[in-house]
Amino acid sequence: MSLLEGPAVGVGLLVGGMLGASGDRASLAFATATAGGAVFGLVDDLAEVSERRTKGLRGHLGALRHGRLTTGGLKVLGIGATSVVAAALATPRPASGHRLLHAADVVASGALIAGFANLENLLDLRPGRALKAAMLATVPVALAGGAGAGVASAVVGAAVGAARRDLHGTDMLGDGGANAIGAAVGTAVVLDAPRRLRLALLAGVVALTLASERVSFTAVIARTPVLRFLDSWGRPATDLGEAGTETSRGVTG
Asked: Quick one: three-class SS letters along 35-93?
């Protein structure tokens, strides 16, 4: 299985998103978040030491607390930093004053971008799953025609372009592709959504991230008919019906 899909999706996202962004700040915000997800995710794909592999966000943060920087820990720090920079560019500024409120808004928006990047990576465990999630999240933004519509359209286009080979299991996003497309989704949402909606989405993303430390998304999908149908749609029959473990796609972190 090839990991070339990840860099290809990253490049496609960057070109499409920067061309479709609603302005210079939106374009720079999108490029910062997407490039950060792609670069730090690819480092985790290529440089992780398999015999010392640390799993999950809790594992990487635990390693940091003990003075050991894993490639996953580097990814957490790197994507966190680029997400906050992107949020500072993308988050609407108040008309006057309220600097502390704006700073808090930027931090929350940065956490939302980073959270989407991580969540997409958590979903990249079966062919097509992460791409379908990205499309479901961004199609409404693209159709709404707001400030994030051009960026959301780039996400949809990149996902559609990668879908056939991903669904057939010949290519996969890997951390580089999944983190890039997740950061792009998060940026589209930050550009388009009002504060209350961004905070509500952040609460949902945090809840799902914490749940992933204890609950198998694959198992939940397998026993939920609607989710199982959406998850299996488009995949070859030979790949269906797997309950499997959360590492069946090989590269997670």
From this structure: HHHHHHHHHHHHHCCHHHCCCHHHHHHHHHHCCCCCHHHHHHHHHHHHHHHHHHHHCCC
